[in-house]
Amino acid sequence: MSARTRLLSDGVRSALRALGAAAKQGLGDPGLAELVQIRASQLNHCAFCLDMHLGIAREQGVGERQLDLLDAWEEAGEVFDGRERAALALTEAVTVLTDGFVPDEVYEEAARHFEADELAHLIALVTTINSWNRLMVTRRIPPGSTAW
């Protein structure tokens, strides 16, 4: 196997951090922001981001039951409320585009639970974590690494 770079441009790192921070702030729900980032990271198999965001989610007070059942949120019943379910469905639709565009019904359900500004920030957050996932997975950055 060829060596993979661990380097990331300071400009790229700074820009993605700023975008993520702005998206989280605009969403206004730190726990939900972490659930969304964890779910996208599960779908993208990004161990680095999973490790990071699971820790942050716990710090934000997200319950262990939600974290344990996040991978099966659709079958988890009342563990996730309607707003969380809409955000997770949108996260999956934006993350996994192999089946086409984000379905109208998924977008419309999210729009019922989020104000337009919040929805824009949610989409930006999902887009940002997908970028981080791809950067970390491509370079095979291991969980807990500080050299990236």
TrEMBL record:
Gene3D superfamilies: AhpD-like. InterPro entries: AhpD-like, AhpD_core, CMD-like. This is Carboxymuconolactone decarboxylase family protein. SUPFAM superfamilies: AhpD-like (SSF69118). It comes from Streptomyces lancefieldiae. Coiled coil: none annotated. Residues 17-92 form the Carboxymuconolactone decarboxylase-like domain.
